[in-house]
Amino acid sequence: MLEISHLRYDVTAEDGAELGILQDISLTIDDGKLVVITGPNGGGKTTLARSIMGLNQPTGGSIRWNGEDITNRSITDRARAGVSYGFQQPPRFKGMKVRDLIALAAGKETLSPAEGCQYLTQVGLCADDYIDREVDSSLSGGEVKRIEIATILARKAGLMIFDEPEAGIDLWSFAKLTETFERIHRQGDSTLLIISHQERIIQLADEILVIEKGKVAKHGPREEIFPQIMARTLPGCGYMKEGER
Questions:
Q1: Strand pairing report for 34-38 and 18-29
Q2: Which CATH architecture has domain 2-231?
């Protein structure tokens, strides 16, 4: 279970004014849920996700994962506790093969062909075609994002956070990506937090969390929140229907 209590993230502007990027955010997310975080651009969605992962240090409040206070824990400690983060633009590692990257994520020196096949198949990639490729610019955006998800699976992450995974990928890769999220969710071993404006991804959610002006504007079951946000598109959201890419 993820428990966030009165979380704040303040920054100081050039004129000395304090800006509240996150303002008193409190919420609880049960194990195994798929929650889509959406809302206007600049509303604080990524800041919230980065704060959970430890990429930002909150200026107030607390974050608990499975009953453990991780507010002041390092990124490495959070990763060891099962918290993971998928970037909008995953890093590429010229000279490192997919096999080695997944082995590193799994905490192993080497990865057997069977293990490599297991993780890559789960994200819709053929192991024979990818296991010995370098994680470099020869991979498309969709391919590198699915390889990143494979590393998260290899890490056996209990909490998977993805920041706009649909950004910059083609329609075919987007379709495979949504299939991967559906598959992970069906397995029920992980909690997923996905930042997205894409209707197809929002439709996958158990719950929708709308962050606006650094606050929780709405949070509830998809059946309740989805009609509200589609009927009144929040400024700057730009919700996209499938095919509008």
A1: unpaired
A2: 3-Layer(aba) Sandwich (3.40)
